[in-house]
Amino acid sequence: MERAWNTIFRKIYRIIRVLSLDILAGVYCGYTFARLILESDCPPVTPAILCLSVWLIYTMDHLLDARSLKENAHKQAYRWHWENRKIIWPVWLSAGLATIGLSLVFLPARILIFGAITVSLVIMYTLVHQGMIGSCKRYLFKEGWISILYTAGVWGVPLLYHGAVPGIPVILAIIIYLLLVLINVLIYSYHDYHRDCQESQQTLATVAGRKTASHVLRLLILSVFTLILVGFFISDDTPSGYIYIILICMAAILGLILAFPRVFSQHERYGILADGVFLLPGLLVWMW
Q: Which value, to the nearest 10 degrees, does the dihedral of the CA atoms of residues 92, 97, 99, 100 take?
């Protein structure tokens, strides 16, 4: 009976990972984190539009990579998207139309302009990544692109509704969040090195070497801890302290993955933890 339950839980978790639902949960928690910190009065439908947009981006990326790799894909997500592409594409188009409709009805012009700029950058990144333009320069530090776009998506709308330049502690928190996202993406680049080489994927690890990626990761985690200490030092109220407690917990977990790469490489534990840390910002709901 216990084995049957374990099998069920594994299948459910596999579906969650393949459909990027864990990413959406992290996006929602990050958005809530940003909204509470900035005390922004965003429309209630905003998180739904944001999560739909992120799902569209991740699913499109998987579908395009799956198309180029087909049955030769080593990642389960790519294989699943290739095998189920005839079902996924209509769902993707329907979700896209729903996202556009909700945005036009509920979001003001300034948010729509911000969204259009973000989508344009996503399209540009996708075209470069897929080698459709600038094929001789396919690698343009994709990890950096992903980190900036992800952070912009999470913090952009709350910042626009905030209506003022945030204080230094908040700006510092945004920078730390961006660096944590970059560490997350680079952890994947480091651990997926051999698989990415087989699939001719362009990452920092495959382009500059796995050792270089490791050095960059250690430098980034050190920078994050330094900035968090600065944040604690300049914080003058309890809520700001809660913000940095959450950020230091996120950094500590990512640091553990870097400190024990062999342990976390087994059964792709690095991915579970590296993505799971982005659920921690949701704790601010109970701490704020």
A: 140
